[in-house]
């Protein structure tokens, strides 16, 4: 109890000095807790939605499970897989079935208003069209107008209507694989559960069958409602028995099974987002460790006499150690509890951001599981105690005789030498691992070496940081500080006074900037490599692509065919097939089925055979990797069982090089070959269309292509310049998101600089008083502290940027195996970050410098 009272007294006495450490713990725990609350809330939202929209039992085509993948495009042609209406009558005979209704739904639809503006979802959520059924009343209610009664009427969800200013009577055009359908809004339906952002469109059943399925007498699934007292499991058993021998083509699922399947599809995305965000929170925790270590190290040094007196009065090393660790526990608890509360606020903020970009999340679904505060508090306390362990041990080693001295604990020269040797060894091993990764022949082996190299070099730089500080700070002093005369030299000496402290403070900033530099190098290299590949390989002038996974509808293809000033148009389809190689192995893969003009649009190198010959009758090409793996040679025959079609024997006419980033490993065949084995109604649509302009007519042709597709806003037309810019924008947006998440770690690192300076000012109170007494002005004093902060920040920036560029270079060399062949160092970004680090140092020193300048000279001199 005495130890606890002592720890509590010390904690409260130094609460101001521990405030920034508490903020670091708070921020890190808040990010973890906010991530958990946010993802749990999203799970709750989708769970409620899937539970509300699933019938007691659902009967759907079995092929839907194998090919649809949740996008309503089981055949690759924009139409979902279907089952015959006759199955409805069969299921109605099942015991326990109260009612059965046929449902139509498809995600292969785009909705535009009268101005050809896309009113579908833009947040990644689907646009779903179907027929209005009784099952929809479980999750929606008609709040305006009425359900559609014919082909000229359509009903839309209230969220979409509000977002785009739609009202009753407005005309909408649904673009589907079977054609365009124009209808007026007859009703608006409002969700009774949270809609995460999907756009929902309802037609009458007959219209939905014709427009979405291409035929009447078909449904995409059946909704079966159970009689009172009949469980979904019992109903499933009865429906299975009723279908009897016809069970083969169907999947029969209970409400829970259907909801679980939908949840698993969404859950994989949520898990990736969750663990990515937790990873950045982990980086912030790692940076926070340096802040806490510095805080407790400096507090222990400043309390040397106090600790020595405690030892002289009978306190054991263990009691002193425990006292410091209890202070860390108190700090961890305070920071963690407030962090958990802040995390809920962060989660609400993230929900508002998601709502702003189109994914609606309701605060009513806010979910705070009991595990969230437990994880946050335990994590915060454990990290804080671990960070304080070394300073606590150092405090326990203070001898009673230290009470007679003013100085802190003496430095252990032997420990410093061992630290330097260990740091150099770790750095050398890490550099060797990075070199192995850069020279690897296989991506798997290289990835392991790269990961090991990153970890080892990071640890090495952290351990050897104090030794590096002595040299790097002197160099920075010559370049940056000497121009400020005596004040600059004093700032340099202050930074060098405790290399361990400077090294730890700089290391905190180093981690975040190393990741920034690494990602900047990889991102710039990706853009440069793709640009180089486009220049070398792509001959097409224009590329037409869909924004999502849906194929290009036939009417858009026909419109493009009539565009002026084009020499040719190339269709690109993706065809699923089970390939049996000469070695007897069978695998499901995709064939790139294109027109022969694709050879003009994409220049590919061959290692054997003749690529144009692969576009002959019943011929194909394979990639170099596939050929080596299966022992395929030119002239061999592969058996291709086409999905939804017949089996073909295809002769290998060419083997293409895998030394490319575009279509690496692709298997090519002619569209006319595929058309002989797949029925027209099962033939996949175009995933992409390429076109070439007549010489000198590029500008006119570009305008013509865009005009031809103006009525189809879901497709993007790009020339090569647009394509390069889009790639650069996409990578830039991704990097900006990552930089934003890394900002948390950098903020914590800045807090570390502030805390180090603040405690250093307290530690040097008497010295500052003496400097003021002999003529140092307040302005000079503040400048000295600001320059010290700048040189520490620049030290961390130099280490971080150098380390990050090394990581990025090794990563690029490894990714060269996948076609990322151009290394580009983004010097403007690197230099901007370096200069910005100096401003970070200036910002971090504002408060400590201001406090130092306000010190009373006589009181400062009298301080012991």
TrEMBL record:
Any GO molecular function: transmembrane transporter activity
Membrane topology note: Multi-pass membrane protein
GO cellular component: plasma membrane
Pfam families, per database record: FtsX, MacB_PCD
Subcellular location: Cell membrane
Boundaries of every ABC3 transporter permease C-terminal domain copy: 280-400, 741-856
Spans traversing the lipid bilayer: 275-301, 324-350, 370-392, 420-438, 450-481, 502-527, 737-762, 787-807, 827-850
Coiled coil (residue ranges): none
Span of domain MacB-like periplasmic core: 19-241, 505-701
Residue segments, region Disordered: 60-84
UniProt xrefs under InterPro entries: ABC3_permease_C (IPR003838), MacB_PCD (IPR025857), Macrolide_Exporter_MacB (IPR050250)
Keywords linked to the UniProt accession: Cell membrane, Membrane, Transmembrane, Transmembrane helix
Family to which this protein belongs: Belongs to the ABC-4 integral membrane protein family.
Name this protein carries in UniProt: ABC transporter permease
């Amino acid at each position: 109890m005495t130890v606890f009272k002592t720890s509590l007294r010390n904690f409260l006495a130094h609460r101001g000095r521990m405030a920034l450490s508490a903020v670091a713990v708070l921020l890190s725990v808040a990010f973890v807790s906010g991530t958990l609350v946010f993802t749990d809330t999203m799970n709750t939202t989708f769970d409620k939605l899937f539970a509300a929209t699933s019938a007691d039992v659902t009967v759907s085509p079995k092929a839907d499970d194998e090919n649809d993948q949740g996008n309503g495009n089981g055949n690759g042609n924009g139409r979902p897989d279907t089952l015959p209406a006759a199955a409805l009558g069969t299921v109605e005979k099942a015991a326990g079935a109260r009612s059965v209704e046929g449902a139509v739904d498809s995600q292969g639809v785009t909705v535009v208003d009268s101005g050809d503006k896309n009113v579908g979802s833009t947040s990644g959520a689907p646009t779903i069209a179907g027929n209005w059924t009784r099952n929809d009343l479980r999750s929606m209610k008609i709040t305006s107008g009425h359900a559609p009664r014919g082909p000229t009427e359509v009903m839309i969800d209230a969220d979409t209507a509000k977002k785009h200013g739609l009202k009753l009577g407005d005309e909408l055009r649904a673009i589907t694989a079977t054609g365009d359908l124009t209808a007026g809004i007859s009703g608006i339906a409002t969700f009774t559960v949270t809609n995460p952002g999907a756009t929902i469109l309802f037609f009458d059943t007959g219209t939905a069958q014709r427009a979405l399925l291409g035929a009447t007498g078909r449904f995409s699934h059946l909704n079966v409602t159970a009689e009172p007292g009949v469980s979904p499991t019992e109903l499933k058993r009865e429906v299975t028995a009723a279908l009897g021998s016809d069970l083969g083509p169907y999947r029969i699922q209970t409400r829970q099974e259907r909801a679980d399947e939908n949840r698993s599809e969404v859950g994989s995305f949520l898990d990736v987002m969750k663990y990515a965000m937790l990873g950045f929170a982990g980086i912030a925790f790692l940076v926070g460790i340096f802040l806490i270590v510095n805080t407790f190290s400096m507090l222990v040094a400043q309390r040397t006499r106090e600790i020595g007196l405690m030892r002289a009065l009978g306190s054991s090393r263990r009691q002193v150690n425990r006292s410091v660790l209890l202070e860390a526990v108190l700090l961890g608890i305070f920071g963690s509890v407030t962090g958990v509360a802040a995390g809920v606020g962060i989660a609400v903020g993230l929900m508002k951001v998601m709502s702003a970009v189109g994914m609606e999340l309701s605060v009513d679904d806010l979910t705070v599981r009991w595990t969230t505060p437990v994880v946050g508090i335990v994590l915060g306390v454990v990290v804080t105690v671990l960070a304080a362990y070394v300073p606590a041990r150092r405090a326990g080693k203070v001898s009673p005789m230290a009470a007679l001295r003013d100085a802190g604990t003496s430095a252990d020269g032997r420990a410093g030498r061992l630290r330097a040797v260990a740091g150099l060894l770790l750095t050398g091993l890490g550099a060797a691992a990075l070199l192995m990764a850069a020279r690897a022949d296989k991506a798997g082996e290289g990835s392991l070496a790269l990961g090991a190299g990153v970890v080892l070099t990071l640890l090495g730089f952290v351990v050897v940081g104090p030794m590096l500080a002595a040299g790097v700070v002197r160099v920075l002093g010559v370049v940056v500080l000497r121009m400020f005369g005596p004040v600059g030299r004093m700032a340099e000496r202050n930074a060098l006074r405790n290399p361990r402290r400077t090294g730890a403070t700089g290391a905190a900033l180093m981690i975040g900037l190393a990741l920034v530099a690494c990602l900047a190098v990889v991102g710039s290299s990706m853009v440069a490599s793709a640009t180089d590949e486009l220049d070398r390989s792509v001959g097409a002038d224009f590329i037409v692509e869909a924004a999502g996974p849906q194929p290009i509808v036939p009417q858009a293809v026909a419109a493009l065919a009539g565009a002026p000033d084009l020499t040719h148009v190339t269709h690109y389809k993706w065809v699923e097939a089970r390939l049996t190689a000469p070695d007897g192995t069978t695998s499901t893969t995709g064939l790139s089925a294109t027109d022969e003009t694709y050879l003009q649009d994409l220049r590919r190198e061959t290692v054997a055979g003749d690529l144009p010959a692969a576009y002959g009758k019943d011929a194909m090409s394979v990639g170099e990797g596939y050929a080596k793996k299966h022992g395929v040679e030119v002239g061999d025959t592969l058996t291709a069982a086409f999905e939804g079609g017949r089996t073909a024997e295809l002769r290998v006419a060419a083997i293409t090089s895998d030394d490319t980033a575009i279509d690496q490993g692709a298997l090519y065949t002619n569209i006319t070959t595929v058309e002989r084995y797949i029925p027209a109604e099962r033939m996949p649509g175009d995933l992409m269309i390429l076109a070439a302009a007549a010489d000198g007519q590029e500008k006119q042709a570009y305008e013509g292509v865009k005009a031809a597709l103006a009525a189809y806003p879901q497709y993007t037309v790009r020339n090569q310049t647009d394509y390069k810019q889009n790639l650069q924008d996409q990578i830039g947006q991704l990097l900006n998101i990552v930089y934003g998440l890394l900002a948390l770690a950098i903020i914590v690192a800045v807090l570390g600089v502030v805390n180090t300076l603040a405690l250093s000012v307290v530690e040097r109170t008497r010295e500052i008083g003496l400097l003021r007494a002999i003529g140092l002005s307040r302005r000079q004093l503040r400048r000295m502290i600001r320059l010290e902060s700048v040189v520490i920040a620049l030290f961390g920036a130099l280490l971080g940027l150098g380390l990050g560029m090394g990581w990025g270079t090794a990563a690029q060399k490894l990714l060269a195996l996948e076609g990322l062949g151009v290394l580009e160092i983004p010097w403007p970004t690197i230099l901007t970050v370096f200069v910005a680090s100096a401003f970070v140092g200036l910002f971090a020193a504002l408060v400590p410098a201001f406090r130092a300048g306000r010190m009373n000279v006589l009181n400062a001199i009298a301080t012991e």
